[in-house]
Design goal:
single chain; mainly beta; Pectate Lyase C-like; 12-stranded parallel β-sheet; 2 helices; 7% helix; elongated; disordered N terminus
Length: 256
């Protein structure tokens, strides 16, 4: 490994190959490295080399691990979560999640933008914040969130112990709430460059949207303060349109 080249919100290791230097784009599960070579083919298209991986695991910032468990723990904590932050703008852009799972935990007074496809999300203790979550292939589970606005596109949504939150929602299946108080649900209002492609990649058909059909697990629980939720039909009262200048990553690591 020759060096690290800094990109927008990430570092990409450069490697030497039998066909010259290149950038390590991916370490695949089948022990194959995907390398984008520094030169171009005819027509200026990218030259991609597939080469056997070296023993062990190397992270995008150049750290090496002998054990897969330690490697996965580091990747999740460093690249696939935002945790323990106050008053920060936390951004992931196209390709920085790449269909992996993600987590948000213990965030207060933050703005979060996840502008990529994810597999699933676990969100705990997010308060007084504003959160944009791009298309998610599977489920999003929110617990103990308060006073926060969420813009979400997902296959499945479930909330538990959430209070005073607003959801601008696209949901392929019926959203589920449990022990949730005074939350508002409106139609999805998000927009950013590449979002339509991300909807396709996440297999979320835009004409199958059940954001309004809420199932309440605690409907008859007298211990949960009412109203549990309110559905506001019609056009959203506002739009969250993120342009390139708005999505400059300020924080890209997980935090501790």
């Amino acid at each position: 490994m020759a060096s690290l080249v800094a990109g927008l919100g990430q570092t990409v290791p450069t490697v030497q190959t039998i066909m010259g230097p290149g950038f390590l784009k991916e370490k695949r599960w089948d022990r194959v490295d995907v390398v984008e070579l520094s030169w171009r083919l005819a027509g200026k298209s990218k030259a991609i080399l597939y080469t056997p991986s070296k023993p062990g695991f190397t992270t995008p910032d150049g750290k090496e691990f002998a054990e897969e468990r330690a490697y996965r723990k580091y990747m999740f904590e460093t690249y696939y979560s935002f945790r323990n932050q106050t008053g920060q703008k936390l951004v992931k852009t196209d390709g920085q999640i790449g269909g992996q799972g993600f987590a948000l935990e213990k965030l207060d007074n933050c703005e979060v933008q996840l502008l990529d496809v994810s597999d699933s999300l676990l969100i705990d203790w997010v308060t007084n914040s504003k959160v944009f979550i791009g298309p998610t292939k599977e489920s999003i589970f929110l617990r103990s969130c308060e006073n926060t606005t969420f813009v979400i596109a997902t296959k499945q949504l479930r909330t538990r112990d959430c209070k005073n939150c607003t959801f601008y929602l696209f949901c392929k299946t019926e959203p589920i709430v449990e022990r949730t108080e005074n939350c508002t649900f409106r139609a999805f209002n998000g927009k950013y460059k590449g979002m339509k492609r991300h909807f396709r990649d996440a297999k979320l058909p835009r004409d199958v949207n059940m954001w309004w059909k809420i199932y309440d697990f605690s409907e008859h629980d007298a211990a949960v303060k009412k109203p549990h939720f309110t559905v506001v039909r019609g056009e959203p009262d506002t739009t969250w349109h993120i342009n390139a200048a708005d999505s400059v990553p300020v924080e890209t690591a997980g935090g501790n």
